[in-house]
């Protein structure tokens, strides 16, 4: 059964407007985020803030960039070279609107790309960020393989996702998202950890918080 009126990502769904608004308006978004995901919105903000610590010349892939939530971590004039990749050209337009609002558009290159077949050579990026993306992809295992492939040896991948082993309280959220066409098959946190190791990472941190998990892994040298 498909829930009506929401639409998948290719239909520019209502959720793609609600989600970035919640993330940017912490006073209202924080409680809503906590009620919906059981997680603290500040964790997403802290994870995105890592972008602001990168040195000039760092090469970053943000996939899926969506409306550019991760870009809030970049600083104007920082000199980072960030590729914002998404399968939806509409979402990329929104990401660039966000980049211009934040004064970081000169550091961002929008690219239409399927995470399952990234158009980049092995070892292209120092950092891959993937916030609230893994649970949207049709094949999260393949996505992890591709995101690690394009990382330089010693580079890091960081992100967040809904995981299916986070308890029955979050089952309705996952069910509704899947029926609306905005969530994919998803995976357990143990599967994500194993796939990151199998793809060539030698260290994986993965912390569950409510229905979400935050991961950070380093590709072996
Ligand atoms: C919940 S949004 C998250 C985006 C962003 N990281 C954020 O936090 O705002 C999910 C995004 O995944 C994108 N997407 C879905 N399947 C994809 C795929 N196979 N490859 C690349 N992007 C994909 C959608 O177009 C959408 O913009």
Report the mean per-residue pLDDT as an integer.
93
Q: Which small compounds were modeled alongside the protein? A: S-adenosylmethionine
Briefly, what CATH class? Alpha Beta
Low-confidence stretches: 1-6
User: What is the helical fraction, as a range of percent?
Assistant: 25-40%
- Report the C-alpha radius of gyration, rounded: 16 Å
Oligomer: single chain
Classification by helices and strands:
alpha/beta
Describe the main β-sheet briefly.
Answer: 7 strands, mixed
Distance between the termini: 46 Å
What does this structure look like?
With 221 residues, the protein is α/β, with parallel strands linked by helices. The chain has one domain: Vaccinia Virus protein VP39 (Rossmann fold), CATH 3.40.50. It contains seven helices and seven strands; from the N terminus they run αααββαββαβααββ. β6 and β7 (212-219) form a beta hairpin. α1 (15-24) crosses α2 (26-37). The longest helix has 14 residues, at 89-102. The protein is globular. The model is unreliable at 1-6 (pLDDT under 50).
Question: What would a concise description of this structure say?
Answer:
About 35% of the residues lie in helices and about 25% in strands. By secondary structure, it is α/β, with parallel strands linked by helices.
């Amino acid at each position: 059964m498909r829930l009506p009126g929401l639409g998948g990502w290719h239909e520019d769904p209502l959720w793609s407007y609600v989600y970035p608004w919640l993330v940017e308006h912490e006073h209202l978004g924080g409680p809503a985020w906590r009620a919906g995901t059981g997680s603290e919105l500040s964790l997403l903000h802290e994870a995105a803030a890592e972008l602001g610590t990168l040195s000039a010349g760092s090469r970053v892939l943000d996939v899926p960039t969506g409306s550019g939530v991760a870009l809030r971590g970049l600083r104007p004039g920082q000199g980072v070279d960030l590729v914002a990749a998404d399968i939806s050209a509409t979402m990329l337009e929104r990401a660039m609107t966000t980049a211009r609002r934040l004064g970081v558009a000169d550091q961002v290159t929008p690219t239409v790309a399927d995470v399952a077949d990234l158009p980049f050579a092995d070892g292209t990026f120092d950092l891959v960020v993937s916030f609230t993306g893994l649970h949207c992809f049709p094949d999260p295992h393949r996505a992890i393989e591709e995101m690690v492939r394009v990382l330089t040896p010693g580079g890091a991948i960081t992100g967040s996702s809904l995981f299916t082993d986070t308890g029955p309280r979050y089952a309705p959220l996952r069910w509704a998202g899947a029926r609306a066409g905005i969530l994919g098959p998803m995976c357990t946190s143990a599967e994500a950890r194993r796939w990151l190791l199998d793809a060539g990472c030698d260290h994986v941190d993965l912390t569950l918080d409510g229905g979400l998990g935050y991961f950070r892994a380093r590709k072996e040298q």
